Amino acid sequence: MTKKKLINYSLLIILVLLVVYSFIRLDYSNIVNLQFNHVWNIFISLLQPDISYVYDGSSEDLIHLMFETVVIAFYGTILGSVLSLPFILLSAKSIWGRFQIIPTLSRGLLNLLRSIPALIYAILFVRVVGPGPFAGALALGVQLIGMLGKLVSEELDRVDETPVEAVVAAGSTNMQSFQYARLPQVVPIAASHILNHFEINVRSATTLGLVGAGGIGAPIIFALQQRNWARVSIILIGIIMVVVLIDLFSTAIRKKLR
After folding, report:
1. CATH number of the domain that 138 lies in?
2. Which of 44, 162, 186, 256 is the most buried (most CB within 10 A)?
3. Is 209 helix (H, G, I), strand (E, B) or coil?
4. Is residue 180 part of a domain?
5. What is the pTM of this model?
6. Residue 26 lies in a domain
7. Transmembrane segments in this chain: where (predicted)?
């Protein structure tokens, strides 16, 4: 058996043991308290969405709050995309040559930024700038810096070097080779990543209202606490419809970028 196969088998065994251990350690005692009639009643209630909540002329109806949620996600995506640009350049190993300490430090910072959940950022920004959509947008934007910085910098390191070598051989400077050979290869991929994370941010923005960061999060939690399943149902329908529409829109754009 080769060393590579031995490592693979060892990792597989460790993974299986972790899965088994996880199942063993789970607490199954509450299963006996499960009442299927309650589950059935909730299911029936979810099939009767509260249509009156879709639009009632106030700023607290479904249309207004879903629009606010999408705006939070959009603003956060734009903010994160712009602020990630310097980190992308600092994290690309192919740019810095002998000075690899710079991308190493930058990637370490990006790892830190993306390791913190958006909800934690939202709590911090609510304390800093006050409750509201702006705090939610900042939370999504800061987390996106870590995500895009890592993904796009890695794409910069994976570009085809043939065009780069060609423009350098023609007498181009490092900046010109980056602008005309590296950047055109990365821009479509970066745009695809941004669109993908916009979809993710829309879903994330639906939970930020839990901590006062705007959007549809707070109403759905209040509805759950009050067991207002009809209200929960219409909110879930709204979220699903918005996410599906954004997915279709971003998919169409990504196809044109290819």
Report:
1. 1.10.3720.10
2. 186
3. helix
4. yes
5. 0.82
6. no
7. none
